[in-house]
Amino acid sequence: MGDRSQKIIYAVFVLAVILLGWGIDNAYYLQMLIFIGINTLLALSLNMLMGYAGQISLGHAAFYGIGAYVTAILTATYQVPPLLSLPAAVCMAMFVAWIVGIPTLRLSGYYLGMGTLGFGMIVHIVFREWSSVTGGASGFVGIPPLTAGPLTFDSERHYFFLVWTVVLLAIIMCRRIIDSRVGRALRAIHDGEKAAAAVGVDTKKLKLQVFVLSAGMAALAGFLYAHLIYFISPGTFGFVTSIRIVTMVVIGGMASIWGSLFGASLLTLLPEWLHAFSEFEMVVYGLILMTVMIFLPRGLTRGLLDIYERYRKNNDR
Amino acid sequence: MNATAKTMTDNAALLEIKGVDKKFGGVNALRDIGFCLNQGSITGLIGPNGAGKTTLFNLITGVFPADRGEIRFKGRPVNRCRVHELVRLGIARTFQNVELFENMTVLENILVGLHTRTKCGMLESMLRFPRTIREEKKAMTRATELLEFVGLQKYMHQRSSDLPFGWQRLLELARALAAEPGLLLLDEPAAGLNMSETRELGELIKQIKDQGITILLVEHDMSLTMSISEKIVVLDQGKKIAEGPPRTVQSDETVMAAYLGKAKK
Amino acid sequence: MQEILQYLFSGITNGAIYAVIAVGFSMLYSSTELINFAHGEFVMLGALSMVTLAAGFGWPLVPAFVLTVAAVGMAGLLFERLAIRPVRQPDHIVLIIITVGASIFLRGLGMLIWGKDAYSMQPFSDHPPIDVAGAKLLAQSIWILVIVMALTAGLHLFYRRTLTGKAMSACAVSKKAAWIVGIPTKWMVLLAFALATAMGAVAGAIIAPVTMSSYDMGTVLGLKGFCAAMLGGLGSLWGAILGGFLLGILEALGVGFVSSGLKDATAFVLLLLVLYVRPQGIIGSAEVKRF
Ligand SMILES: Nc1ncnc2c1ncn2[C@@H]1O[C@H](COP(=O)(O)OP(=O)(O)OP(=O)(O)O)[C@@H](O)[C@H]1O
Ligand SMILES: [Mg+2]
Q1: What string of DSSP letters covers C226-255?
Q2: What CATH number does domain C2-277 carry, 3.40.190, 1.10.12, 3.20.16, 1.10.3470?
């Protein structure tokens, strides 16, 4: 993508955010959009790890949860201002990722999937069982709204702008990483770890770095979630969520930044739409997942593009 | 006597291999291998299938350590170094079964090849300093030069897996050169190439040598190997059975036996 | 002492269940290199079908059991034909998502058929619990152990003695080589799916009397069965059995001596330990993808 077309896309994105932010008055819709933003952050964070570097994580909700719980505990229990709990939450997740990443990232394929899954389950159980600190299975109440100096983000509209500004920054950062030396090395690891090492990429270190970065972004999403809802419970950060994040990435399109946005939107909205099916919700959801993966394994965005290209080629002939 | 000793020290060996052993389970892939590569030379490494040539490459590039023996590069022992560290020190390679980054473009493959010659890290790439942009531009220029060298500049925006096989080999060669190696290991670079492509490859290899890069070449195409190598090392079943200038090796009886014996089977 | 024994009994009972589930994982993995995240859902289908047939329709145990296992095995066959074979790009991320999708689908299906209620049924026989040094051993536990042991012996013989079993082992070693010597690998894959899901059904059917069965019981059971399979060594029959019992016993002792909240954590802590320290499992020999 050229520099210019990228700028145009960013401009359209900003415009869309501003229009939606001012145009929509319905609190429910705004909240939906905020959730899409948070989920986009999650999808983006996992996409860096899974889509670009090719390292699957089935426990990403753990970092999301660490972000949420650390800020909840700091702000509610210890009255730390959110502006300080934010770096604490992000750093905590990154630190955990670093410790866990060293042994886990030596694994690959299913084994890596299982290692991250096990880690995610353990963190989830800690949230649930360490009730003196986390509030246990019934959850953690009384998280204060986000304030930063004179600014308070307690209305949906403010929060909407906050979240989407963060999303925009995150997209720009990720885009920059991907287009840089580091990003190319990450994609090289994805295509062939052996060859990547043979051209001088320190694969171990780079995988760890992107894992830590990814954990930090997920924790940021958790931070935003906690101060949006004021209440968190372990159920939000379990296996199902981890899988949902993976699904967003895969459905949206691996190794595609805008695909993450699309996947996050779809998977946030889909359950809402499927409410119409009430009883059939799970069945339909499962079917959609399977069908997309069977027929469009590169995700909806990529898959549809591929089909379009094939169609065009056939017509040219 | 004195004269030979003198040339030895003058032509300081870039790579020294001494008494190297490697076993895989019960298979003795390499036994007591030792030889030197002189700075700026082309050495051919030949031997029947399964002789241990690729295994030796893997040892030199640090994919796995030798069970015994020593490998020195530029005078320092490198047995314990990891693959990427060795690339930084100046050892680059190509693979027997071309290993490109398939989902990346031709240009991007070379840019990854420049990894050790560029610096920008994770944080810096996010902040994108002027220095970062300068480095990126320089890398781009260098990559284009390399693509011109192997004649692929026209295809730089194609996906590398879309290239015909022969060009993939050239791309892999250019990618290895991007690391600015002092020693270049080529594992059967002519396999799968047709006659004219092989001839062009021979020319390229000579040009690379003229840039002062030492080359260790594994190749089954004897006419190519014999015509460009100054020295030939022959392996058979993990053992070195001959070493010397092409002419003497060609007429060596053990070598003939190794190849013919194989052919008869 | 009596307490320890009591925990041990419950551990062994749970362990037997985990073992059967783990065998399903291992079997499938060894012949297809696939990990079926929907495996737990087949356990759920087994349990709920058994309850419905035996308690709901009042069928005698044996036909109910046989029909349950056969039906779930058929479901496994269908699953392979409809969702796995057509996969265009069978890399592990894609397969993980597909089987996860299947697990959601099956859970949804379970909810459609059985609703959100939990069901229970009578034990297979109504003997009173046996008293061993003050600890009580339920009759159903004995049923479970006997069935699991018989099943294991049967599988062992199947793999060692029958041509089909040997062919399946050959596929596990190298699909290509098996295909070259004329083994119909596609059928073997199909058979592996049917057998593995049938194993899940057996696990479901035998625990139905000692647990409350509901549409969402499968996930946790599946994950634990998987941990057990990893623990013993993915791809090995005896490894799965060993892993299952070990996990069951350690879990029970954990509940007894540390806290009940930690019960679920045991499996995952063990899983991580195995992955970090000995990824091939306790007695596994499968080559592990580890750089
Ligand atoms: N990673 C490995 N694990 C086990 N055995 C190996 C491994 N790599 C090589 N071998 C064995 O070591 C021996 C030497 O193999 P190697 O690939 O080095 O031969 P080669 O000389 O490169 O042959 P070719 O001309 O066919 O490329 C062979 O018997 C091979 O099976
Ligand atoms: Mg070789």
Answers
A1: HHHHHHH-TT-HHHHHHHHHHHHHHHHHHH
A2: 1.10.3470
